[in-house]
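We store chain and fold; example below:
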Amino acid sequence: MTLVAISEISKRSTTVGSILASIPLVSLLAFVWMYIDTKDTAKIAELSQGIFWLVIPSLIFFILFPVLLKKNVDFWLSLGISLTIMVIGYFIMLFILKKAGISI
């Protein structure tokens, strides 16, 4: 339902659609669920910190995808390339975090 709503709103206003889509709904739901289930705020804080570090490589997708589309690269190819490079970014970030002694 949320995806449909964001899609429909984005047809009218990409700004409002972007704001709604940027809300970390899955993360918020995970925090609430974990709190209700375990009351372990240390684990929730750990999860939140891990999400922070992994948002950084996910931004690669949101930079590369529109660039490829604006260069008239096919939608599906742009999506595939952007996702592939994002996944590579995740592995690079995990490697960097490990070397820095940060565990997530």
Q: What stands out?
A: The chain is about 85% helix and 0% strand. Helices lie at 2-12, 14-22, 25-38, 41-70, 75-99.
